[in-house]
Amino acid sequence: KSANPQWREQFDFHYFSDRKDMLDIEVWRKDNKKHEELLGTCQVDITALPTKQTNCLELPLEKHLGSLLMLIAVAPCTGVSISDLCVCPLGDPSERQQISQRYCIKNSFRDIKDIGFLQVKVLKAVDLLAADFAGKSDPFCVLELGNDSLQTHTVYKNLNPEWNKVFTFPIKDIHDVLEVTVFDEDGDKPPDFLGKVAIPLLSV
């Protein structure tokens, strides 16, 4: 019920600097659970923004009234990684020792914002639902922690996919919940939901 909404949400996107990336933004209005209406769109050329500073942008919505006020910072990515199981970032004993020292009791107040990080090994799924008429699925896995989101590659025509990927997230709030969702890739259509599990960080 507002024409001037304030969201104050922060989202982290991870991309490689050699790509020419456009950030696509859509603003939607929701009447109820079934009816949604597009209020406008806008784009930001990420490669044109100065790095290592916060850029304040007022973006007019294309072909619609109104504008969107955003703060966008392009900075080197720290603490987030995707790797294969065979080159797991915590596999090196010396690296594990450095991390143990970094988060020991005596260093716990050196950087209050540095709570730690979470490493997740996504190995495989078993006995997934068949999403197509041939009795198969094209599954991929999405991991979300707070507003951070990373995903595996798609394994085609398989109900027992093996991903064998290692994901590393920086932890911003110890009360966050890791959500792991499996989807079926469906071409240009939105992916089909195959299953989900939620793991509170405090339970790890």
UniProtKB/TrEMBL annotation:
A GO BP entry: regulation of neurotransmitter secretion
Gene Ontology molecular function terms on file: calcium ion binding
Pfam families: C2 (PF00168)
GO cellular component labels: synaptic vesicle membrane
Subcellular location: Membrane
Highest taxon above the source species: Eukaryota
Topology relative to the membrane: Multi-pass membrane protein
Main location group: membrane
Classification via InterPro entries: C2_dom, C2_domain_sf
Transmembrane segments: none
Keywords, alphabetical: Calcium, Membrane, Metal-binding, Repeat, Transmembrane, Transmembrane helix
C2 domain sequence ranges: 1-59, 93-204
Family (UniProt): Belongs to the MCTP family.
PANTHER family: C2 DOMAIN-CONTAINING PROTEIN (PTHR45911), MULTIPLE C2 AND TRANSMEMBRANE DOMAIN-CONTAINING PROTEIN 2 (PTHR45911:SF2)
Protein name: MCTP2 protein
